[in-house]
Design goal:
Elements: H1 2-17, E1 20-24, E2 40-45, E3 50-58, E4 62-66, E5 72-76, E6 80-86, H2 88-104
Antiparallel strand pairs: 1-6, 2-3, 2-6, 3-4, 4-5
Helix pairs in contact: 1-2
Amino acid sequence: MKKTYLIFSVLLIILLNSCKSIIANPGKALDDNFLEIGKRYEIQDYEAKVHQFKITSVDSINVYGVSKKGKCIVINKKQIREVKKLKVGTSIIVSISAIAALIFIPI
């Protein structure tokens, strides 16, 4: 019984971590067309700070956004190391289907 809960917990953590897709990293350049206004992104800068916010606007130099706490965030594009797009809705659907498969399919 404990093994089942352990497997279930590990599977759930993996599924929730997989709800992010990498849009830009040091090997893949950031293009303005990839960033959608009004969507939530996780941006890591070269100082290893991770910012999660909703993008409000993008210009040729900076990316502007608002965090969940209402704080305005401005990040220079040259300081961006990695950009990940959050896909929480699809990961919830995948998680629920994985849980259903664990319950209904005998091992």
